[in-house]
Amino acid sequence: MERILFDRLGGSTGISAIVDAVVEAHMCNPAVSARFLPYRDEPEKLSTIKQHTVDFFSAGSGAPVNYTGRDMVTTHKGMAITADEYMHVVDDILVVLDEHKIDTVSKNEVLAILWSLKGMIIGQ
């Protein structure tokens, strides 16, 4: 029996580690860091954002998790994220997945999820 994407990403622990690493990568990426660095001064808000991200990706990767955060359009409304910024974010995620030794099939599934979300995020 094939394992679900959630399990292949390392379950809750693995996804939490990936989210932490992705946020750090975004903070170090000059193309998107201005959107993420201010959260360093708001650790409680950053923690909430990370937890919602973990829950969102856990639920989206097959885990029996109830995502209670806002939908993607509402979350990104007014941010005017560009396609270029979105691609930098996706690139950061793929690099982190490589660093966490996530297999190609699983990375492609994550990429498909990210690609399906782009219209709900870009230009909102």
Q: Sketch the topology as an H/E string, one letter per element.
A: HHHHHHH
CATH superfamily: Globins
Under CATH at level 1, the class stands as: Mainly Alpha
What about the largest sheet? none
Shape: globular
What would you note in describing this structure?
- The longest helix has 18 residues, at 11-28.
- Helix 2 crosses helix 4 (43-60), helix 2 (11-28) packs across helix 6 (83-99) and helix 6 packs antiparallel against helix 7.
- The chain has one domain (5-121): Globins (Globin-like), CATH 1.10.490.10.
- The protein has 7 helices and no strands.
- It is mainly alpha-helical.
- It is globular.
Topology, please?
Elements: H1 5-8, H2 11-28, H3 33-36, H4 43-60, H5 72-76, H6 83-99, H7 104-121
Helix pairs in contact: 2-4, 2-6, 6-7
Features:
single chain, 124 residues, mainly alpha, Globin-like, 7 helices, 0% strand
What's the quick description here?
This protein has 124 residues and is mostly helical.
